[in-house]
# Entry
Amino acid sequence: MKQAIDVFHEYIARNGLKVTPQRMLIVEVFMSAGGHLTTEELYERVKATDPSVGQATVYRTMKLLCDSGLAKEVHFGDGVARYEQKYGSKHHDHLICEACGENIEVLDDEIERLQEDLARRHGYVLTSHRMYLFGVCGKCRSDGKRRPPRED
Amino acid sequence: MKQAIDVFHEYIARNGLKVTPQRMLIVEVFMSAGGHLTTEELYERVKATDPSVGQATVYRTMKLLCDSGLAKEVHFGDGVARYEQKYGSKHHDHLICEACGENIEVLDDEIERLQEDLARRHGYVLTSHRMYLFGVCGKCRSDGKRRPPRED
DNA sequence: TTACCTGCAAACAGTTTGCAGGCCG
DNA sequence: CGGCCTGCAAACTGTTTGCAGGTAA
# Structure
């Protein structure tokens, strides 16, 4: 099966770009991290392995990853860009706990279908959508945890 | 029936704030504009009436409007905050045309219900959500219009 | 009179970009 | 070797904040 790293190499080759140690390191860190990391978090983790890498390279490489289809930039509404893995992962929506920040990827086929219907009723053909559900998870409810409400 | 402007006055009074010409002008511009304006757009329109108003005042007043429940800050993913009217308007989601930028407010009760269900299945209690549907409207499809894809 | 407000400009945070040197292919 | 890459720092964008003077109540 084709690995994500292969997709990246193909993209690099197809566009006359180059494979560099920095790019490989960043891709590796990103692919093995999993979650929804900010550029800052990625930068920190990259520096843990190679302190000489600059922030700009992380930004530039993440843009490359997005273009190549490996990553997707998401915004939760707090003004910072986050990246999630896209290659080989199905579309999903986000369920976010406002108390602890937990972020679950969810999917409901029925909702997906109704979204298409809704758009069609207005004469639209959908190309994509974003759905963020904000709430409090069971654990935080019993802990009584709070957190300043996000800007919305 | 209670007008939006009354809500603003009450909020002002309740919090020991003051009614100023700048604030009234900004509220007026915002309430009569309707759409989903950015701070920049609001600022331009305000300046058309009173060129002496500063950007900072627009930012500060919009924050006030949000706190008072008249406005709501929304993010479509392009890094700029937009404001929509909230008072007297029901919750809704957004259907956005990627070609012409048209933005329709939509609502589907069935989807709303399923969102609650979905969250509950994961042990969450929902407090709010955001749903943006991106596509191409009927008019733009027949015109064959395009526009660079938004960052997503 | 006394807070609160305002415009201005400086400060900020996140992100982008110009540049001189470095390295992949 | 030539062109892409890199780190650095400066530039940029959207937004916030400190300050000295102005004004609503």
Observations:
- The mean pLDDT of chain B is 90.
- Strands of chain B lie at 37-38, 71-75, 81-85, 93-97, 103-106, 125-136.
- The interface with chain A takes residues 72-75, 77, 95, 97-98, 104, 106, 108, 110-111, 114-115, 117-119, 122-139, 141, 151-152 of chain B (CB under 8 Å).
